[in-house]
Amino acid sequence: MLAKTKKEKTEEPPHYKFHRKHKILFGSFTSLVIIFIILSSTALYIIYIKLDTQYTELNSKLENLQKDTQGKLNELTDNLISTQKDVTQTQSLLGETKDRITSLDVELEEVKASASTDFSSVIEDAVPSVVTIRTNVAQGTGFIINEEGYLVTNAHVLTSANQVSAITSNKQILSANLIGYDSNLDVALLKIPGNYDKLELANSDNIQTGEKVIAIGNPLGLQFSVSEGIVSAVHRPGINNQEIYIQTDAALNPGNSGGPLINKKGEVIGINNFKIGSSEGLSFALESNSLREAINEISSLALNRTLV
């Protein structure tokens, strides 16, 4: 048996131990890290505070700017509204001024026309819309009531006629077609080719006794003769016993039948119809409102439309 060798020493693994200087270094590094973290945090906090303060200030400035902008927009809106009101008022004043000027012009024309010598402008405007009605048996007058060549005359002018023509103020002779007639009111509606200026029908409810009027016609073949007078009375009874006639002292003679009775505005207040015997100053015209009804009744039946 072998002798036991000397008791072998068992070796333990070495333990690493920090020396003092290593501990100091490690502690210093840790302290530096902590200090760095603290300083960084402090710096970041300060930066955050500054940014937050700047944001608050900027937000406050934006709010103030919005308020100021809104205030200016409100002021601008108020100014625009005020300006619009001023423009509307100015336009209204201009319209009133224009209406007054127009009214003054009309009044001036009426004043001029109220004098016998100044009826010439009314006559000049009216004559182109008046025609001579000629048939194979008689002669009368008519006037245009629609731009398309529709005209009216007395129905008795066409009695027994088989051929009707209209002679215009510029001497044109045109064939006239009968559209229809009202024998009770003695009104006939005719049509000639072409386009023309028309005469306007007045509201006969506004006729005043004593106002000046003129009659245009073809008495005894004297074409486009004019006679002047006044309205002697309104709503006189006629041959048909209807109180729808104007009495005037404007001279009417054979050939005036169917011609217009015109006021100082150049409007037709009646269609000349008849006179009493051989008397002077007792002439009668169918009032324009009754004439309008007769024309529209005839045209509605014959043409399915109204003309005036």
Please give a handful of descriptors for the protein shown.
2 domains; six-stranded antiparallel beta barrel; 308 residues; alpha+beta; rod-shaped
**CATH class identity of the largest domain:** Mainly Beta
Order of helices and strands: HHEEEEEEEEEEEEEH
Low-confidence stretches: 1-7
Main beta-sheet annotation = 7 strands, antiparallel
Which architecture of the largest domain per CATH?
A: Beta Barrel
How many domains comprise the coordinates? Answer: 2
How would you portray this structure in words?
With 308 residues, this protein is of the alpha+beta class. The chain folds into two domains: 36 residues; 182 residues, Thrombin, subunit H (Beta Barrel), CATH 2.40.10.120. Helices cover 38% and strands 25% of the residues. The protein has three helices and 13 strands; from the N terminus they run ααβββββββββββββα. Strand 8 and strand 9 form a beta hairpin. The radius of gyration is 53 Å and the shape is rod-shaped. The termini are far apart.
Question: What is the gist of this entry?
Answer:
This protein has 308 residues and is an alpha+beta fold. The chain has three helices and 13 strands.
Which secondary structure elements does this structure contain, and how are they paired or packed?
Blueprint: H1 20-114, H2 120-126, E1 130-135, E2 139-146, E3 150-154, E4 164-167, E5 173-175, E6 177-182, E7 187-191, E8 212-217, E9 225-237, E10 243-248, E11 260-262, E12 268-275, E13 283-287, H3 288-303
Antiparallel strand pairs: 1-2, 1-4, 2-3, 3-7, 4-5, 6-7, 8-9, 8-11, 9-10, 10-13, 11-12, 12-13
